[in-house]
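Whiteboard transcription, Tuesday session. T.W. wrote the C-alpha cells on the left side:
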C-alpha cells in the first residue's frame, strides 16, 4: 500500500457503510461526484467512538479493503431528527430518490443499534479534495469530468503588460449536463498599462465595453472566489478555452498570481483545481472538422454548433457559445473509431 502523504498522517480515517461491499459502493459514488453528503446516528459519536465531523476538517475515506482511497473536507454539520431530513439533503447523498434513501437508511440503522423516526442523526456535507492511489482505479472508471469553458476580455494582448477586465465560465459535462456559471469583472491592475490598439478596438464595441467594466472588483477578491467555485464542483474539472494560448494564458497567470493555483495540473502548486493540461477548443474544432490547419478557425463552425448564441465579446455570451460548441464536438468525437495500438513509449 502506498504511503500516505505526510500531511495526512494524523488524519481521521473511516469507511462508509457497515460492510466492505457497501464501503466500496458508497466510495464510488463519492469519487463519481454523486455523493457529497452522509449521515450517521448521533449515538455512534463521542468519547471512545468516532469523533463528530468538524467543518473544514479533512478526513480519509477507506475502501472496502481498508485502504485510504480519498480525502474529503467537511462543509457543514447539523444534528437533525431522522424524520426532519428533507430531500434537499438526501439528494446530496446520491443514493436514489427520497423513498429509496429512507428505506435504505431505516434498514441500516435498524441493524446497527436500532431505528426510530425521532432518532438524532448527524448530517454532514462535504467535498472531495484529493484522490489517493488506492482510489485512483475506481475514480478513473466512474468520474465524469466537468469542463470549465472560459472566455476572457482584456485591455491588451498579454498579462505581462496588460490587465484582464472580465471573464466568464460555464461548467458543463460532455453530454451537455450543466453545473452552473461564473462571471466577474476585474479592476485593471495598477502595475499594468493598456494597449493602444486594443483600446481603439474597444471604442468600436461600446455595449460590450460597458458589460466588461461594470461593477469591477479586485482580482485578489475574484480569483480565489473562482477557484473555490471550481473546486466545489463534483468530479475532476478540466479547463477549456478558445484558444488556450490566449484565454488559458490569462487565466493561468491570474490564478497563479492571486489564488495560488493554476489552469494546469502538475507539480506546480499544492492546490490543484484542474485536471491535466486543458483543452484548446480551437484545436479540437479544427481537427474534428477535418480541415487543413490554415482553414481552422472558430468562425468556420456553423451557427448551430454555438446554439445560435452570437459572439458579442461579452464574456458570458461567448463562454455559453463555446460550451455549446464543446458538446457538439464531443458528439462528433464519440462517433469516431477509437485509436488502439501498442503501449506508448511516452513517459
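and on the right, the sequence the group agreed on:
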Amino acid at each position: 500500500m502506498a504511503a500516505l502523504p505526510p500531511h495526512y498522517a494524523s488524519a481521521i480515517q473511516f469507511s462508509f457503510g457497515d460492510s466492505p461491499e457497501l464501503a466500496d459502493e458508497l466510495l464510488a459514488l463519492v469519487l463519481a461526484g454523486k455523493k457529497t453528503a452522509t449521515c450517521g446516528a448521533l449515538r455512534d459519536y463521542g468519547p471512545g467512538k468516532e469523533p463528530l465531523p468538524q467543518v473544514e476538517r479533512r478526513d480519509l475515506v477507506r475502501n472496502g479493503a481498508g485502504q485510504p482511497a480519498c480525502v474529503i473536507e467537511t462543509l457543514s454539520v447539523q444534528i437533525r431528527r431522522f424524520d426532519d431530513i428533507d430531500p434537499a439533503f438526501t439528494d446530496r447523498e446520491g443514493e436514489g430518490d427520497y423513498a429509496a434513501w429512507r428505506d435504505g437508511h431505516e434498514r441500516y440503522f435498524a441493524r446497527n443499534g436500532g431505528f426510530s423516526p425521532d432518532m438524532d442523526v448527524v448530517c454532514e456535507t462535504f467535498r472531495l479534495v484529493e484522490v489517493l492511489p488506492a482510489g485512483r482505479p475506481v475514480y478513473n472508471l466512474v468520474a465524469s469530468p466537468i469542463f470549465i469553458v472560459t472566455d476572457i476580455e482584456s485591455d491588451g494582448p498579454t498579462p505581462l503588460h496588460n490587465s484582464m477586465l472580465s471573464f466568464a465560465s460555464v461548467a458543463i459535462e460532455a453530454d451537455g449536463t450543466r453545473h452552473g456559471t461564473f462571471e466577474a469583472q476585474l479592476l485593471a491592475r495598477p502595475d499594468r498599462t493598456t494597449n493602444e490598439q486594443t483600446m481603439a478596438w474597444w471604442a468600436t464595441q461600446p455595449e460590450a465595453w460597458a458589460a466588461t467594466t461594470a461593477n469591477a472588483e479586485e482580482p485578489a477578491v475574484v480569483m480565489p472566489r473562482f477557484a473555490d467555485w471550481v473546486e466545489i464542483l463534483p468530479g475532476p474539472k478540466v479547463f477549456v478555452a478558445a484558444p488556450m494560448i490566449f484565454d488559458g494564458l490569462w487565466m493561468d497567470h491570474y490564478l497563479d498570481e492571486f489564488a495560488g493555483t493554476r489552469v494546469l495540473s502538475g507539480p506546480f502548486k499544492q492546490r490543484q483545481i484542474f485536471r491535466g493540461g486543458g483543452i484548446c477548443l480551437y484545436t479540437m474544432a479544427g481537427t474534428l472538422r477535418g480541415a487543413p490547419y490554415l482553414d481552422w478557425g472558430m468562425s468556420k463552425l456553423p451557427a448551430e454548433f454555438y446554439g445560435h448564441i452570437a459572439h458579442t465579446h461579452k464574456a458570458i455570451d461567448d463562454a455559453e457559445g463555446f460550451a455549446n460548441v464543446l458538446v457538439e464536438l464531443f458528439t462528433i468525437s464519440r462517433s469516431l473509431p477509437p485509436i488502439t495500438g501498442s503501449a506508448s513509449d511516452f513517459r
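Someone added at the bottom: The chain has two domains: 6-142, 146-334.
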